[in-house]
Design brief:
- There is one protein chain.
- The chain is 73% helix and 0% strand.
- Helix 1 crosses helix 4.
């Protein structure tokens, strides 16, 4: 196991390095001049443009830019944001908290409620409730996340003004507010973006779990368990759910980067100060160091997700431990 883990970790490291090099090269090859976007409508004199060019090194050859970036990265330096003038690492740290909160709760709901509903639908495939659940999940998946978000804003923010429709917290909340008031405020701001995210994403784990469970629900060992008088709950948990876990592990590993990437549309719609909206802002402003820093974070998240999925494979499927 230790040997396999070391080899798999080395593979992930090499893959992440190759992906990071490709990311940095491609970002620098994007059309458009970052300095033009930085100056905007304010304009700049030739001397000011020369100073900005020297400051950000936009006139250097591509190999030099890439080599300088990775040399600084080896020292833990992600550079400075062109639009904010502060270290990229500081910007990412400011934004990663809200994204981790929203993304982790979305995954938690999707991979608990979604899997439970998918398993239940597989065990009751002919019931009208299972069919209605399948239809509703497809409807939620078909509706774009920003459309679901706008409907929630209209219903619960405008028609029924129960919940705040934007932001991460109430800026008017007293600084000496007690922990209970702060917790309630955070939850009220979280409900609508989390609901929109779940509506847009829960159909995938639900239907994956349903399809995987349907493949084993009439397997010989399941029929034998029923014949022995095993309770329906035990049949579902012990004999159907675990053998159907392998595709869910794959899905979970692929979705882990959501913890970091967040959701651009949802974060933009609800004014959620996460990494998704940050990436959209940085791309629009041609803030090259910030785009590369956020991109590298995604590369690491994807590799960590794939590594976690491979480890979980070996946990749920003993055959994987002895290839």
């Amino acid at each position: 196991m230790n040997h396999w883990l070391l080899r798999r970790g080395a593979d992930a490291l090499i893959t992440a390095l190759v992906a990071a090099i490709a990311l940095v090269v491609l970002v620098h090859l994007l059309p458009g001049d970052p300095l033009t976007a930085l100056v905007g409508d304010k304009g700049a004199t030739p001397e000011q443009l020369a100073a900005l060019t020297a400051r950000w090194g936009t006139d250097r050859p591509l190999p030099t830019k890439v080599l300088d970036y990775f040399t600084a990265l080896a020292r833990g330096d992600l550079g400075y944001s062109m639009t904010r003038g502060i270290p990229v690492g500081t910007v990412l740290l400011e934004r990663i908290g809200p994204t981790l909160l929203l993304g982790s709760l979305t995954l938690l709901v999707d991979f608990t409620l979604g899997l439970a509903l998918g398993l239940w639908a597989a065990l009751h495939p002919e019931s009208w409730r299972a069919r209605a659940l399948g239809a509703l999940s497809i409807l939620g998946y078909a509706v774009p996340s920003f459309v679901a978000g706008m409907l929630l804003v209209w219903l619960f923010g405008i028609k029924l003004p129960w919940l705040p429709v934007a932001g991460y917290r109430n800026v008017l909340l007293p600084v000496d507010a007690d922990a209970g008031a702060i917790f309630v405020d955070r939850v009220r701001h979280l409900v609508l973006p989390l609901t929109a995210m779940v509506i847009a994403t829960i159909a995938v784990p639900l239907r994956q779990q349903r399809a995987a469970a349907l493949a084993v629900v009439n397997a010989p060992w399941v029929r034998a368990a029923r014949a022995r008088g095993v309770s329906p709950a035990a049949v579902a948990w012990r004999h159907c759910w675990r053998p159907a876990l392998t595709p869910i592990v794959t899905l979970f590993g692929l979705w882990l980067p959501m913890l970091v990437a967040g959701a651009v549309f949802i974060e933009g719609l609800f004014g959620w100060p996460g990494l998704g909206s940050l990436i959209a802002e940085a791309t629009q402003a041609r803030d090259v160091p910030l785009v590369m820093g956020a991109g590298l974070l995604l590369v690491v998240a994807v590799q960590v997700g794939a590594l976690v999925a491979d480890i979980l494979y070996r946990v749920v499927d003993p055959a994987q431990r002895h290839p």
